[in-house]
Write a structure and sequence with these properties.
This protein is α/β, with parallel strands linked by helices and 209 residues long. The chain has three domains: 1-114, 3-Layer(aba) Sandwich (UDP-N-acetylmuramoyl-L-alanine:D-glutamate ligase), CATH 3.40.1190.10; 120-158 and 169-178, no CATH class; 179-209, no CATH class. The protein has six helices and eight strands. The protein has helices spanning 7-13, 33-41, 62-69, 91-100, 148-163, 168-175; strands at residues 45-48, 81-85, 104-109, 116-124, 127-134, 137-143, 186-192, 195-201. The strands form two sheets. Strands 1-2-3-4-5-6 form a six-stranded mixed beta sheet.
Length: 209
């Protein structure tokens, strides 16, 4: 992934001049790294999908991870938007940090106060079906990837699309066309004792935490 001090500048340098939008991932292993990257990107929309213990080798606790991720708001353009997971640990910390930078805050998740809310989720072996409430309307999505994490990420995508004034039904339909890559949720059917089993490959950058 091009999410570090080498990859982010390469991403920016290779943007086509005619691009209307760009997506940049800002990664970190230590405090201060996202601060440097967000100063390069100057995002209009900043998304934090999750706070998890994957980086605890370099941080005291998950609150410290949340504070490091909140550095992204320091680079937000004036009037920018922070899109945050209302179900994540330390969501209040992230909201406070975003508002301290005068950001508009949009929450996604399954909790009642979420602006983009997961109403129903049907997990199947080969994918997921979900109902999303957003701005007084409901959207039905069918994802080609199983797992609650894919459903939550799709809420973040819809929040971004809504923030940018894009066509939400079209965005929902296109999400259904996404196929997970090898190592990031890709699936394989394997022979097993006269039948078949479905292998979900989440091995890329896998972390026991």
């Amino acid at each position: 992934s091009h999410n570090n001090h080498w990859g982010v500048p390469l991403t920016l340098a290779n943007l086509p001049p005619e691009a209307d939008f760009a997506v940049a991932e800002l990664g970190m292993n230590h405090a201060g790294e996202i601060r440097a990257l967000t100063a390069m990107v100057r995002p209009h929309v900043a998304v934090i999908t999750a706070i998890a213990p994957a980086h605890l080798a370099f941080f005291e606790d998950t609150a410290a991870i949340a504070r490091a991720k909140a550095e992204i708001f320091e680079g937000l353009e004036p009037g920018g938007t922070a899109i945050l997971n209302a179900d994540a640990p330390h969501a209040d910390l992230l909201v406070e940090a975003a508002r301290a930078r005068a950001a508009r805050v949009v929450l996604f998740g399954a909790v009642g106060e979420a602006d983009v809310r997961l109403v129903a989720l049907d997990l199947e072996a080969g994918g997921s079906r979900l109902t999303v409430a957003l701005g007084g309307r409901r959207l039905e999505l069918a994802l080609a990837a199983p797992g609650r994490h894919w459903a939550m990420n799709s809420l973040a995508v819809l929040a971004v699309a809504d923030c940018l004034g894009l066509d939400l039904p079209h965005a929902a339909a296109r999400l259904g066309e996404v196929r997970p890559l090898a190592g990031r949720g890709g699936q394989r059917l394997l022979p097993w004792q006269g039948g078949r089993i479905r292998l979900l490959d989440e091995s890329y950058n896998a972390n026991p935490a």
